[in-house]
Amino acid sequence: MSGGHGSHDSTIDSTGAGKEPTTVNTSTDDRRRAPYLVREPHVHAGYDGLIRYCGASLSAPHGPQYIAHYGTGVFDFSVDTFDHDECATLLRMPPKETRDRYRHAARQFIVCVEDFDLSLRALNTGEVIRTVVQSVGSGALYCGRIRSGEYVVGAALPPLRAEAMDLRMNHLANEIRENEFRLGSEHPGGDIPPSPADPGDVNPPSAPRTWSDSGLREQLQTRLFNDWAYSVGPDDLHYAALYRNWSPVHVGDVFDDPQLGRWFTDIAITSRRTLYQDIASRLRSDMSRLRHALRLIIDGPIDRLVLDVQAGALYVHWLQPGSGDFLVGVTLMQDKVWYAEARLRRLVERVRHTLSHVE
Fold this sequence. Notes:
With 359 residues, the chain is of the alpha+beta class. It has helices spanning 28-33, 48-57, 85-88, 95-120, 162-180, 218-229, 269-281, 283-293, 337-358, and strands at 8-11, 36-39, 66-71, 74-80, 128-135, 139-147, 150-156, 209-212, 239-244, 247-253, 302-309, 312-318, 326-331. A 13-stranded antiparallel sheet has the order 1-2-4-3-7-6-5-11-12-13-9-10-8, sandwiched between helices. Helix 2 (48-57) runs antiparallel to helix 5, helix 4 (95-120) runs antiparallel to helix 8 (283-293) and helix 6 runs antiparallel to helix 9 (337-358). The longest helix is centred in the N-terminal third of the chain and has 26 residues, at 95-120. The protein is globular.
């Protein structure tokens, strides 16, 4: 079989290597058991290990259903399970057209990731190593940086598989860096607890430095201050900001805590606060470009964005998908990336409850 753009299509054999088109077993049962491989003509035997790791990742329970590899902006190969029975009720078009759409969207996704990377450079927290976009009703996308200019992009079609896909793609990025290139793990996603659970409240409550819009009612300001005191602390979630209609209304952080002093040896606390506000102020245009880039595969509003850098992460969770109401969260600690987002999720629910009862 021959794919578009001069690519070769095949299944992956038991070792994970791509079969040449002339040796593909074309029985329906075999095609549905094996991941479907599309590889460009320039993809030589040196890529076989990468293909094996990506193919194996598709077999993980509730993991991704599509993985593509790009180097220096060029599509190299992809593996998917779009022909499998589990995808039959999820695809809106035939598998071949779906592959073409994901291939194009994945390349545009990488362009957006590289733009986000440039916008975060001034924070001195390193390069973006993991980006996750989740959409209501349209699943989730993952972009993991392997080396400079080299990425793996993963996709989960149903939204409920987003977390499992995220974890599996983190593992894949680590496998490739460590086993193929003998590089150390960059720890995407941070430490994952054996049994992920709600992290609970910050205890004892912290005393974050806060700012509230002067137009907020006093009762609402008090409730939000309490929400931040039980959510933002020196252990994981270090900064959180509530935006309504794309404008900040309540911001709090613990950057002044002595435990975090080592993270401010190369950048002033006030500068970091200003930079986070600048990044959030560009979100409206950045998200518009991101939605346009992913329009072929995501038609629902985006409700979660994760920009995981080498030292910590920045998260955006929407209160109402498709609106200008959202929370921005930040952790400075790479090992606490999972915990900080779990804490932010809890804060999002607190804020929803507060707004529904006070406004």
